[in-house]
Amino acid sequence: MNRRGFLALLLAGGAAACQGGPPASRLPRLTFNHLTPLRLGVGTLAVEAGDAGAPDMPEKARNVGFLAPVAPADAAARWARARLNAAGGDAEATFTVTTAGVFVRRLTPKEGVEGFFTDEPGERYTAVLAGRLHITGPRARGTVTARAEHSKEVAESATLNERERAQFDLVEDLLADFDAEMVQQIKKHLDRWLAV
Fold first, then answer.
1. How many domains would you assign to the chain?
2. Which of 111, 107, 81 is nearest to 94 (CA)?
3. pLDDT tens across 76-131, in order?
C-alpha cells in the first residue's frame, strides 16, 4: 500500500469514528414555499419525471443522484408543485423533468511531498437539471425549457456528513438557478397564460 492509500485508510477510519458536521438526517428540507406561486390560466397541471435522462458527462464520472440527500429530479418535481399553480381555464399544463443527476468524478492528486501533506480536492460533484413546461389550449399552445448546472469540489478529508452537506448545497444552488431561468422563460414566452 502506498503512502496515499495508507493516508486515505487513516482518514476513512477517523471519519467513521467521528463524522463531523450535522448528520444527514438533520439537513433542512428543500422547499419552495417562500416563493410566490406563478398562477397559470390552466385547468390542470401535471408533473412528470419523463425519462429524466442523464446528460453526457466527462469520462469516469458516475451518477450518484440516487444517493444524494436531495435528488435533483425529486427537487424539481417538488419545485413545480409549489411554484406553478393551476388558476383555472380551458388549457392544460405539463411540467416534465427531462434531465437530472448528480455526478461525481475523482480528481487526480498532486504527486510527491506536496500532495501528501496537502488536503486537496478529492472529488468534484456536478449537478445537472433540465425541465420543460408545455401548455396546450383550444386555441394556442406553448413550450418553454430551462437548464441549470452547478459544480462543487470536496476535500479528500471530507467526512460523509460533509459530503452530504456539499451535495445538498449543490442541489439547492442548482434549483435556485433553474427557478430563475424557468420563470424568465415563462414570463417571456408563456405570458398569455399568466393569470393576474
1. 1
2. 81
3. 999 999 999 999 999 999 999 999 988 888 888 766 555 455 566 788 889 999 99
Instruction: Tell whether 125 is covered by a domain.
Output: yes
CATH number at residue 59: 3.30.160
Contacts of 181 (CB under 8 A, 6+ apart): 146, 147, 148
Domain hosting 88: range is: 35-193
pLDDT tens digits for range 37-70? 999 999 999 999 765 555 555 555 566 666 678 8
pTM (2 d.p.)? 0.76
Helices in the chain by DSSP H: which ranges?
A: 3-17, 72-83, 112-117, 160-189
Those residues whose C-beta lies under 8 Å from the C-beta of residue 59, and which sit 6 or more positions away, are: none
Question: Is residue 26 domain-resident?
Answer: no
> Smallest Cα–Cα separation from 147: which of 171, 187, 181?
181
Q: What is the dihedral of CA 130, 151, 28, 48, to 10 degrees?
A: 10
- For the record, the C-alpha cell of 158 comes out as 471530507
